[in-house]
Write a structure and sequence with these properties.
- By secondary structure, the protein is mainly beta.
- The chain has one domain: Sandwich (Jelly Rolls), CATH 2.60.120.10.
- It has two helices and 24 strands.
- The protein has helices at 9-12, 17-24, and strands spanning 2-4, 25-26, 35-40, 46-50, 57-58, 74-80, 85-89, 92-96, 101-104, 111-115, 124-130, 138-140, 148-150, 159-165, 176-182, 188-189, 194-195, 199-206, 214-220, 223-229, 234-237, 244-247, 252-259, 268-269.
- The strands form five sheets. Strands 1-3-4-11-6-9-12 form a seven-stranded mixed beta sheet, with no helix packed on it. A seven-stranded antiparallel beta sheet has the order 2-21-18-23-15-14-13.
- It starts with a strand and ends in a 7-residue tail after the last strand.
- It catalyses: 5-dehydro-4-deoxy-D-glucuronate = 3-deoxy-D-glycero-2,5-hexodiulosonate.
- Zn(2+) binds at residues 194, 196, 201, 243.
- Its cofactor is Zn(2+).
- Its EC number is 5.3.1.17.
Length: 276
């Protein structure tokens, strides 16, 4: 499990493009027939992907965690961005179609991942954080996620937001997860930009054609930087950083957070005219 150290805004101001990519971009999230994780010191979050093609994958523990099993002191949120798949949690099976989500609470010992069709395998994005309480395992389909349409054609950000794990949805200790799907002709996400000093955030970009890219904006509102991101790559966003961007075509992305609260609306906005 690769470890990402916490980086301050002062450090980030001096970074080259290569250093920014090394510290904030996760280039490989999904590996064939593997569960692949990274550990970040931002709120002790572990994130990655489970990519079962023709075998069943079992969630094991890691030396980094010093735990008997992965969810001994943790919770995990999961969103499927691929084909039909199944997750088993202590013997209870959950079938997840594309854009369905599953939350598994602290104390579940055995978790497995499998795909229904090896020719169209599931792609499970995973985000885990320390947990102080046990909440029940719960599935939510994209239709149940209270989809909300936002944005306009004029500002090139027509999009649909799906909220799964948050204060008014699936209950958790500190994980918050959902996703955004941009409509054809729209490219901007999360604009006006914002920060939330009370929690970190991660983005997974998906449904982006191989020849296209997203220009992800990060940094303090008056000290912005950018990272060029490809399909199925993820961004770590520190609490001091904005997280926004524009693509060369429309796309979708998962937003996943952990930290001080579960309020989706906890955002400190930065006016567009004040960005630098």
């Amino acid at each position: 499990m690769q470890i990402y150290q916490a980086i301050s805004q002062r450090e980030a101001q001096t970074f080259t493009t290569a250093q920014l990519r090394e510290n904030f971009l996760i280039e490989t999230v999904f590996k064939n027939n593997e569960i692949h994780f990274v550990y970040t010191h931002y709120d002790r979050v572990v994130l990655g992907g489970a990519f079962p093609i023709d075998s069943t994958l079992t969630l094991g523990t890691y030396d980094n965690l010093k735990s008997e099993y992965f969810l001994e002191r943790r919770e995990i949120g999961i969103i499927n961005v691929g084909g039909e798949g199944t997750i088993s949690a202590d013997g209870e099976s959950f079938s997840l179609s594309k854009l369905d989500a599953l939350y598994i609470g602290k104390g579940v010992k055995e978790v497995t991942f499998s795909s229904t069709d090896a020719n169209n395998p599931a792609l499970f994005f995973l985000l885990s954080a320390p947990a102080h309480h046990t909440y029940p395992t719960r599935k939510m389909t994209k239709e149940e996620a209270s989809p909300v349409s936002l944005g306009t054609v004029e500002t090139a950000n027509e999009r649909t937001i799906y909220k799964y794990i948050h204060r008014d949805g699936i209950q958790s200790c500190q994980v918050v997860m959902g996703l955004t799907v941009l409509k054809t002709g729209s490219v901007w996400n999360t604009m006006p930009a914002h920060v939330h000093d009370r929690r970190m955030e991660a983005y997974l970009y998906f449904d982006l054609n191989a020849e296209h890219r997203v220009f992800h904006l990060m940094g303090q509102p008056q000290e912005t930087r950018h990272l060029v991101v490809a399909n199925h790559q993820a961004i770590l966003s520190p609490p001091w950083s904005i997280h926004s961007g524009a693509g060369t075509t429309n796309y979708a992305f998962i937003w996943a957070m952990a930290g001080e609260n579960l309020d989706f609306t906890d955002m400190d906005f930065a006016k567009i005219a004040e960005l630098k």
